[in-house]
Design a protein that fits this description.
- With 153 residues, the chain is of the alpha+beta class.
- It has two domains: 67 residues, no CATH class; 45 residues, Ribbon (Seminal Fluid Protein  PDC-109 (Domain B)), CATH 2.10.10.20.
- Helices cover 16% and strands 29% of the residues.
- It has two helices and eleven strands, in the order E-E-E-H-H-E-E-E-E-E-E-E-E.
- The strands form four sheets. It has a four-stranded mixed sheet, with no helix packed on it.
- Helix 1 packs parallel to helix 2.
- The protein is flat and about 55 Å long.
Length: 153
Amino acid sequence: TPSHQRYWDDQSKVPFLFNPSTGLWITYDDVQSIDIKNNYIKQNNLGGGFFWELSSDRQAELIGLTYNALNNGVEPSPTTTSASSSNSSTTINSVTTTTQSSTQGIIRQWQTNYAYSVNDLVMYQGRIYKCLQAHRSSPNTKPSKTPTLWLRM
C-alpha cells in the first residue's frame, strides 16, 4: 500500500506529505504551521488572515486556534463609533455580524431562536461548538448545557 511521509518545508513553514513510490505530494496546514502564521499576523500587526479551504478542518481545530490566537479568546463586543458632519455629531452603536452560514467557514455567535444545522459552528462564552443535531435554539439549548446538541471543539 502507498505510504506518505510527513516533511517540513522550513522556508514556507508548512508541512507536506510525499510518497516516493508514486511521486504524489500533498500540501496542507496543521497546528504547527497555523500557529506560525498566527504569530506572524500578530507580530506584524496585520488586520487578519484567511483560509483558502476549510472543509478538511472537520473538528474546527485550525479555525479555533486562529480565532483564539487573533482575538485572545475574547468574543467581539459592541463598538461605539462617531460619525460627524459640519453641522452635527451622531453616535452609532454597532455590532459586527455575519449573514453567511458557519458551514462556509464563518463562526457566528450562538443565539436563541435560530435554526441550526448539523456541523454549524458557533462561538459561545469564548468557546467554539459544533452542532450535532439540527434544531431551533432556545434558552434551554445553550451549547455549554446541551451535549446532545453541541460538541465543544
